[in-house]
């Protein structure tokens, strides 16, 4: 830490309670009152160094020779700063450090202690020392922290802006090249290595990383920290580094974000002073405004944690919309666990905030449509790469939506229109397989057995039966919760797929047979190849036989289902006829009928 020793005389003052006296033996002829502290001093050492004190003394001098009393309630730094000013005027030894130079600089300017009242006056001394402080990272941070004690005066003298500009310049530059003494937590401990018998026994310095300055500046108050972030952004710092610093600051001062920390960390956080919810809310809103806007710069996981905390702190609607838009911009990088944001409050219906997820998804789809409209035709190679990336992105989001629907489907308060809106928002081309949406629909139908037949039909239209895998098709064909029309469609497409596969294999088999006949005259080597092809043909025929058996089993299951439906209809008709003969009202209207298939 930088240090400047001023004065040469030994201590000549003593403090008794709220009284501060000079021990020179001469009677005091002036009393300076600052708050509750009274300084009994002498006029000449003071007026010879301070223009303001000279003016005040001349205005308050009394002819009767009584002691002059001055009130300096507005002096920057208060009684503590004036004590050092008095020592400087009397030539008493004291040390100028980064912790007191700002208050002394402001106090000396306030008292007009310029070179007009003595060479090497306090204004000149503090200014020169400040320039030395700005050359050191840790000293500059200490000086900036003390600016808050005299903030209006430090702002007027541009000390705050000079500190911030100095820190921003160092943070934006390569510390490895300039070799600045960056110290952790502001501790100015000597970490040099010890040498024994020509061998160094100390620890080697760790290589500097891009986050070397995060913790040092995290001790600044929010207004100063905000100005520093804006300064490093203007200085050309990479957005990833700015985002990293803001993430570090947010985790440190917003305890609600750290609820998933270990018990040890939680107990440590409780022992420390916890900011109020109002302070955390204000800090979170400022952090959101300062975060870089570029996609992928800030982790999606952190943005979702920030959004969840924002819900708990009840931030402003504009802040919440800002966060939802940022998450929507990179929704394809999110995970299901992070998207399951609990509903806050007592009047909510569903367990999770489904409306919030809907808004996030709308942001993503809006941006995806805008990017697709900007390049409707993919012609060049770079556009082809971008198109593939866009397709992969929306495919990941489709899988995420299907997983989300499967997770929230068991909630009995999850309304059918919301389920339909979320599932229908994803275009069909974004789902290469329909297994995910089928699973969500099946869970929803199981948790909501009161849905009408029309609603069941509508919800099943959300999946493309042609895109179901063999396993999902087998399950759907035996699923009693699905409408019969959907089961027939599944069986139809599965049989169509089976026929296509069989036709393709027979086509390949015929080609292989022809090639075998044409290669019969080629010698022993050709005979060996024909034998290999013959074995592959046998494998294909075996696979075809297995598929035919599976198809027959599916047909039998379907016929059993149709017979069950027909028996139920015959029972309903006979009961209706019996009721009509006995004079009882007909109940045929209550009997379900098979839908017509074409």
UniProtKB/TrEMBL annotation:
Alphabetized Pfam families for the sequence: BTB, NPH3
Annotated metabolic or biological route of this protein: Protein modification; protein ubiquitination
Coiled coil ranges: 537-564
UniProt KW keywords: Coiled coil, Ubl conjugation pathway
Annotated region described as Disordered, given as residue ranges: 577-598
Sequence ranges assigned to domain NPH3 in this UniProt record: 211-497
Keyword Coiled coil: yes
Gene Ontology biological-process entries: protein ubiquitination
Alphabetized Gene3D superfamilies for the sequence: Potassium Channel Kv1.1, Chain A (3.30.710.10)
Residue intervals of the BTB domain: 28-98
Entries under PANTHER family matching the protein: OS12G0117600 PROTEIN (PTHR32370)
Family to which the UniProt record says this protein belongs: Belongs to the NPH3 family.
Protein name: BTB/POZ domain-containing protein At5g03250-like
Organism (species): Nicotiana sylvestris (Wood tobacco)
Gene name of the encoded protein: LOC104230632
């Amino acid at each position: 830490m930088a240090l400047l020793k001023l004065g040469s005389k030994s201590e000549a003052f003593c403090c008794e309670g709220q009284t501060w006296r000079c021990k020179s033996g001469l009677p005091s002829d002036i009393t300076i009152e600052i708050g509750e502290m009274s300084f009994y001093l002498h006029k000449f050492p003071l007026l010879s160094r301070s223009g303001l004190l000279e003016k005040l003394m001349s205005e308050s001098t009394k002819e009767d020779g009584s002691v002059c009393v001055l009130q300096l309630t507005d002096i920057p730094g208060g009684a503590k700063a004036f004590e050092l000013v008095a020592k400087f005027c009397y030539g008493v030894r004291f040390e100028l450090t980064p912790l007191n130079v700002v208050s002394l600089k402001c106090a000396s300017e306030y008292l007009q202690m310029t070179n007009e009242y003595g060479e090497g006056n306090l204004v000149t001394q503090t200014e020169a020392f400040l320039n030395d402080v700005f050359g050191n990272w840790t000293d500059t941070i200490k000086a900036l922290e003390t600016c808050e004690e005299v903030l209006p005066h430090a702002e007027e003298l541009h000390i705050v802006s000079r500190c911030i500009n100095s820190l921003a310049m160092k943070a934006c530059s390569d510390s490895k090249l300039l070799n600045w003494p960056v110290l952790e937590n502001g501790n100015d401990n000597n970490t040099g290595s010890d040498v024994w018998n020509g061998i160094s026994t100390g620890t080697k310095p760790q290589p500097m990383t891009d986050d070397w300055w995060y913790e040092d500046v995290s001790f600044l108050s929010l207004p100063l920290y905000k100005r520093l972030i804006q300064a490093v952004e203007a200085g050309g710092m990479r957005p990833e580094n700015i985002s990293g610093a803001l993430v570090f600051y947010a985790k440190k001062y917003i305890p609600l974000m750290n609820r998933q920390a270990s018990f040890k960390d939680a107990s440590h956080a409780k022992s420390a002073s916890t900011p109020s919810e109002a302070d955390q809310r204000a800090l979170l809103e400022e952090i959101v405004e300062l975060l870089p806007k570029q996609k992928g710069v800030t982790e999606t996981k952190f943005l979702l944690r920030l959004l969840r905390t924002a819900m708990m702190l009840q931030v402003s609607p504009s802040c919440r919309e800002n966060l939802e838009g940022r998450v929507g911009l990179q929704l394809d990088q999110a995970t299901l666990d992070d998207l399951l944001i609990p509903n806050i409050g007592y009047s909510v219906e569903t367990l999770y905030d489904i409306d919030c997820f809907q808004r996030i998804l709308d942001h993503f789809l809006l941006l995806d449509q805008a990017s697709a409209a900007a390049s409707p035709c993919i012609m060049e190679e770079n556009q082809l790469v971008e198109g593939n990336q866009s397709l992969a992105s929306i495919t990941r989001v489709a899988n995420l939506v299907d997983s989300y629907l499967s997770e929230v489907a068991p909630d009995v308060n999850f309304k059918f229109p919301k389920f339909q809106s979320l599932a229908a928002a994803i275009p069909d081309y974004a789902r290469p397989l329909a297994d995910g949406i089928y699973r969500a629909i099946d869970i929803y139908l199981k948790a909501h057995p009161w849905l009408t037949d029309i609603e069941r039909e509508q919800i099943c239209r959300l999946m493309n039966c042609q895109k179901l895998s063999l396993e999902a098709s087998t399950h759907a064909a035996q699923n009693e919760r699905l409408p019969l029309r959907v089961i027939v469609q599944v069986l139809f497409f599965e049989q169509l797929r089976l026929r296509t596969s069989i036709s393709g294999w027979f086509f390949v088999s015929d080609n292989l047979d022809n090639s075998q006949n044409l290669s019969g005259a080629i010698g022993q080597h050709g005979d060996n190849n024909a034998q290999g092809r013959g074995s592959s043909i046998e494998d294909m025929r075996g696979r075809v036989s297995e598929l035919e058996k599976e198809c027959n089993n599916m047909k039998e299951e379907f016929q059993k289902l149709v017979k069950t439906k027909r028996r139920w209809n015959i029972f309903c008709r006979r009961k209706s006829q019996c009721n009509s003969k006995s004079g009882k009202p007909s109940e045929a209207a209550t009997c379900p009928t098979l839908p017509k298939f074409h």
